[in-house]
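Researcher: Before we compare anything, I want clean individual predictions. No alignment, no superposition, just each chain on its own. First chain goes here; please echo the sequence and then give the structure tokens.
Model: Echoing the first chain and its structure:
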Amino acid sequence: MAKGTITVNQDECKGCGLCVESCPVKGLELSPELNHYGIHPAFLNVDACTGCGICYFVCPEPGALTVYKLATSPVEVTHAATV
């Protein structure tokens, strides 16, 4: 179940593949196309991402990955009357 998602900055990604290898659900892949630096950057398969953030922590390039956590809807809490 998705609890978030990520975005990949194609210009900051250096194509090292650490995020691809560390993703537990294999939601990241290296693009077959080159960016303007001549590198195959990572891209997100949005159907598989759970927003766990492991990719963010293994990425050596600051600013290449951004993790977004989905907001949960407020849950109403009711207190049972004690007798």
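Researcher: Okay. Second chain, same rules.
Model: Second chain and its structure:
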Amino acid sequence: MILGKLRTKNALMSIVDNKKAYHDYFVEEKFEAGLALEGWEVKAIRAGRAQLKEAYVIVKNGEIVLLGAHVTPLPTASTHVRADPTRTRKLLLHREEINRLIGKVERAGYTLTPLNLHFAKGRIKLEIGLARGKKQYDKRAAIKEREWNREKQRLLRGRPGSSRSPRAQ
């Protein structure tokens, strides 16, 4: 009984993933950051109305901010608050982490990209990746490898000795 409670308490519940990030970048390190959100944004994100597809992370005035993330306001949003769906949101990290990320981005040619928006211990967190951009030939090689793995699975599924063959059912 206690184990079940621990498992659900520590589990991360994903809200939205940025699948395009893994297609466009080699993600080398991941960081979990908090987000400075307004009340209507928290309610909208809990309702699953967030998008990271065109979002990116930049360094601005010694802070790390999220730009382009779209949070669609709920229709029941307050009448006295003007909701801006794509406003700039500050990311909450320790100063040491911020300094390290700024150094990597400015000197080593890395970029920061949002990977995942999720719940952790009841709070909304953003997973950001320290990444290098892929060239076009890298993307083609990744697509080719993914298609070959799918084809291998199809071939293995069709073998008569395989336990997962359609004839065995």
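Researcher: What stands out in the second chain?
Model: Strands lie at 13-17, 25-35, 50-51, 56-60, 63-67, 70-71, 89-92, 111-120, 123-133. Additionally, The first helix runs from residue 2 to 10.
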